[in-house]
UniProtKB/TrEMBL annotation:
InterPro entries: TSP_type-3_rpt (IPR028974). GO terms for molecular function: calcium ion binding. Residues 144-269 are annotated as: Disordered. Residues 258-269 have a biased composition (Low complexity). Residues 144-157, 205-221 have a biased composition (Acidic residues). Residues 231-245 have a biased composition (Polar residues). This is Uncharacterized protein.
Length: 269
């Protein structure tokens, strides 16, 4: 799960000129800010060498990115504060436009800035507002795009509505690192996603048409993957290897040993 935010800064850069001239600066920056510290946001560019920076003090980041369950008992969350505004005052909340003698590299968030960089102009705003629009982008980063982890039964191409939950654990596949609930991460079961092939190259050990990351019995030996723990009952099938030439038992159809607690119960009969 990742939280992204965009910020719109409306500020008046106050410039004092002895001769009464008005200085006009065209601020042509892209839409992406970088952030560091408690809350320092900045943009830099070259040709010409310029930067925009916004520093806010006394910001409670826990409140800034606070989430709450979408409903009682749900594992899914939503943001509490979708929009937040801060007043630029030139002291605790500062917005600056600067020009430099050379490329502004490693200017912000570094204890020791470049020794070859000089600030030519530094204009600070004493008024204005910074409006933050916060978006919660949810994904389990298992190597499969969220859109492809949904059967899209509702036809809206949105995995967050009527989501697919293969193992029925309350976490939809696009937020679940273990889609089939077999105690092996989806990413470790080689979905092999690519833009060109999609998921057509996903590993399917037993060739049953269900890729391993959605198959509760990867090797088709009649024993659930999560139960193939011949060496240690630690809920981790990946470290139970009887034949190192083949690999973990859950991928070896010739070895169908179940978890040790089950095997021991049959030893005494």
């Amino acid at each position: 799960m990742r939280t992204f935010f965009s910020v719109l800064v409306a500020a008046f850069v106050l410039i004092s000129c002895d001769d009464g001239d008005v200085l006009t600066v065209e601020l042509d920056f892209d839409d992406t800010y970088q952030a560091c510290g408690d809350l320092v946001l900045f943009k830099t560019k070259t040709s010409p060498n310029e930067s925009l920076s916004l520093q806010l003090e006394s910001v409670d980041l826990e409140t800034f990115f606070e989430t709450e369950p979408i409903e009682a008992g749900s594992l899914l969350v939503d943001l509490v504060n979708l929009n937040q505004s801060y007043t630029i005052n030139g002291s605790t909340n500062r917005f600056n436009y600067r020009t430099y003698s050379s490329e502004p590299v490693n200017v912000f968030c570094n204890d020791v800035p470049s020794a070859n960089l000089d600030v030519i102009n530094d204009y600070s705003s004493n008024s204005g507002n910074a409006l933050f629009t916060i978006n919660l982008v949810e994904d389990d980063n298992d190597g499969i795009p969220a859109a492809l982890e949904d059967e899209n039964l509702d036809g809206d191409n949105d995995p967050s509505t009527m989501p697919t939950d293969t193992d029925g654990d309350g976490l939809p596949n696009y937020l679940d690192q273990d889609d089939d609930g077999d105690n092996v991460f989806t990413s470790a079961e080689k979905p092999n996603y690519s833009v060109e092939l999609g998921l057509t190259a996903a590993q399917d050990t037993d060739g049953d048409g269900t890729p391993d990351y959605l198959d509760t019995d990867d090797d088709g030996d009649g024993v659930f993957t999560r139960d193939e723990e011949s060496n240690s009952a630690n809920s981790n099938p990946t470290d139970d290897i009887t034949n190192s030439a083949v690999g973990p038992d859950f991928l070896n159809p010739r070895n169908s040993s179940e978890r040790s607690s089950y095997s021991l119960s049959h030893t005494f009969h």
